[in-house]
Amino acid sequence: MPQKAELSVCKFGGSSVADAGQFKKVKAIVDADPARRYVIVSAPGRRFSGDTKVTDLLIQSSDAPHLLVNNMAEVEKRFRKIADDLGVEFDAEGQVEQIRKNFKAGAGIQYLKSRGEYLCAQLMAAYLGYDFVDSAQMIVFNYDGKLNVEETEKNLREELSKHEHAVIPGFYGAYANGVTHTFSRGGSDITGSLVAAAVGADLYENWTDVPGLLMADPRIVDKPLAVPVITYKELRSLSLMGAEVLHEDAVYPVRKKGIPINIKSTNEPEEPGTLIVSKASYYKQVLDVSGISGKKGYAVISIVKEKLNEDPQFQIRLANVLSEQKIKVEKRSTGVDSVELVVEEKTLRGKEDALKAALCEGTGASSVEIKGSLALLAVVGRKIASAPGVSVKMFDALSREKINIRFIDYGSDSISITVGIDEEEYKHAIRAVYQEFITCVSKPVE
């Protein structure tokens, strides 16, 4: 296994800082390893079902000014209670009043949206005894809203070199003129990744409320297993197929530097979580596959033309028609006399007949058929190409459950197999394929 990290960057999500009890878990995690010198935090999340996240309170205030007074009072109450329960001196009232004044003076909506992270980082710094370093001093956006990567990395590296330990708020930075600008929702993951890359961390730990990346959607499969090790390439493949994993923007800075990511649970810190790495040959593969994912809302366009594979101009004519009709192809499968295209069904609405006519005329096809209500199911694993048994297991599982396969695509990246099935069979298929693979999971080597 890899050597122990000498420098780790830790990002804690909203569920990890929701209340004083969670703050205490964060402190125990940070104190357990001296390598954890830089901490990034989100705004406090939900404490219980029906609760409102701090960021949502702030967004409501910015969208509906009449809610500002009541919502800001609730934000102040949340932070005051956390501080009181921790026994930490923290002027929640004064901080929130200053935020309110700045917003009314024109600081802007994005400034207000970012204050949950700002306040949480200040309180966490006080609790841990770390320095507070404001992201607005380091993370720079161009005036078109895009991140200035070079300037940001330079600022982070130079500023954090002055701090042995620091807490940094996630989610936001600023333009060169000092005006606050935020990432999209979930942007604290990006902040953490940027910090890890800038300081040359050995490991980027992303702490959340799940014990790693799950092998399947927990809304479909009951308590799915966490994947021990996954490559960045596999992660991207799963993401493109709809899996709720780290956004590419949150992965790129550390992937570029070859820094592994460890997804772990704040509530179960002893669990190993999921390690995301550039190359996984160093690690024992416990699972045959790294994930099962999919999406609904597709259609198959079947085009038949005799000896189309002998017509060098066919693909060009086909591409021209699809471009004119503004149709994006997600997957394709070509035979001797036919080609099947998988597209998003919503892009065909209202123009099926016109598209059929255009394809027949433009490509010389003898027939064009469109069938909707298709779901795509993908199995991703780095050894799929070298382990033919993986595809056999997948097809056996679907066959036993009498699930008809309407489309098959062996990914050109050699790490995925995608099948098209009827939407009504989607959840059933996910469960069947998942069950097939976990029946052979052996206990990981200690």
Report how far apart the termini are: 10 Å
As a percent range, the share of helical residues equals 25-40%
* Name of the CATH homologous superfamily of the largest domain: Acetylglutamate kinase-like
* Most strands sheet: 8 strands, mixed
Number of helices: 14
Stated plainly, the CATH topology of the largest domain is called Carbamate kinase
CATH class of the largest domain: Alpha Beta
State the total count of DSSP E strands: 17
Beta content:
15-25%
Uncertain spans: 442-446
Rounded to an integer in angstroms, the radius of gyration calculated over CA atoms is: 25 Å
SSE class: alpha/beta
Tell me the overall shape: globular
Written description of the protein model:
By secondary structure, the chain is α/β, with parallel strands linked by helices. It folds into 2 domains: 202 residues, Carbamate kinase (3-Layer(aba) Sandwich), CATH 3.40.1160.10; 148 residues, VC0802-like (2-Layer Sandwich), CATH 3.30.2130.10. 37% of the residues lie in helices and 22% in strands. The chain is built from 14 helices and 17 strands. An 8-stranded mixed sheet has the order 3-5-2-1-8-10-11-9, sandwiched between helices. Strands 13-14-12-15-17-16 form a 6-stranded antiparallel sheet. Strands 4-6-7 form a 3-stranded mixed sheet. A hairpin with a 5-residue loop joins strand 16 and strand 17. Helix 2 runs antiparallel to helix 3 and helix 7 packs across helix 8. It starts with 7 loop residues before the first strand and ends in an 8-residue tail after the last helix. The C terminus is likely disordered.
